[in-house]
Amino acid sequence: MALKLGLVGIGKIARDQHIPAIAADPRFELVATASRNAGVDGVASFKTVEAMLADVPELDAISICTPPQAHFDAALAALRAGKHVMLEKPPAATTREISLLQAEAARQGRTLFQTWHSRFAAGVDAARDWVKGRTLTGGSITWKEDVHHWHPGQQWIFDAGGLGVFDPGINALSVLTEVLAEEVVVSKAVLEFPENQQAPIAAQLDLRTQSGVAVDTVFDFRQKGEQTWDIELVAATGRLRLSHGGGALEIDGKPVAADEALAGEYPRLYARFAEMVEAGRSEVDWRPFQLVADAFLIGERRTVAAHHV
Ligand code: NAP
């Protein structure tokens, strides 16, 4: 029997990725949506999660693809109604919200899948295998994209709680924390805030592993021309480069062909969600979000030119 799914927040990522991935997976049936200004043809649509939960009691699960500021209330309402929940990244607006959602899922005996889609990019598993058993000596992250191209008109990114350049940058941190064999901390951060916005447009982080290896990190939303989503790791016995947000891998300068079975981040996310519901498990790993929160805690603030979405 397919899981009856409600989709919350019908915007860019819902249309580009979630709806096609759900349609292609026989383990799910999209039966309702909750979005203030949008819906999906042929699917019951509601303005709020509460109305959707009340009118469609047969829902088994909901998948939330709103911005992070709207995750907590929706996820809490769904868990309390006994539904399984899948959450887009970034997981929430505050760290406390994630802990409370995790506790609620456990209390209700329901699955909470707090996703990091970039961890499902084709090169990530092989990168983790390469790191295992090697001694790292350094690394860098360069995540530079044009916010006007990738997030047209999305003011929420620059509102308080929208995380600014960390909205994409947290993807890099999700991959780094997945592939490294040891934990990292933020030892220094510089955050650049446009004079008219509440969230940073660029950030530089000094990350350090517990054994003191530096991973220099640059996030920038003002990139024109070539777009870069690269992670480089250097070991005594070679070097690795994950590019295209984890989708392409080079080891010692040579491309490594990706396994065809690893194609498609969102189909793999939904496959994992179905497996977790079946197994009665949850998955919550908010280390990438902690690193972002820590950058806000210790970061030096610089004011830069105004930015208009
Ligand atoms: P989006 O195009 O702005 O869509 C999000 C939708 O959520 C909106 O259209 C809006 O629909 C609804 N919403 C509910 N509460 C909202 C609020 N307080 N502020 C703004 N919208 C609200 O954004 P998106 O690009 O799909 O991104 C949504 C989430 O997916 C983000 O957390 C982002 O990090 C993640 N994501 C995005 C991408 C991407 O390429 N864009 C990739 C991976 C992950 P209604 O007005 O109909 O309620």
TrEMBL record:
All copies of domain Gfo/Idh/MocA-like oxidoreductase N-terminal, residue ranges: 4-113
| Database matches in Pfam families | GFO_IDH_MocA
Superkingdom of origin organism: Bacteria
> Which InterPro entries does the UniProt entry name for this protein?
Gfo/Idh/MocA-like_OxRdtase_N, Gfo/Idh/MocA_oxidrdct_glycsds, NAD(P)-bd_dom_sf
Q: What is this protein called?
A: Gfo/Idh/MocA family protein
Q: Which organism is it from?
A: Pelomonas dachongensis
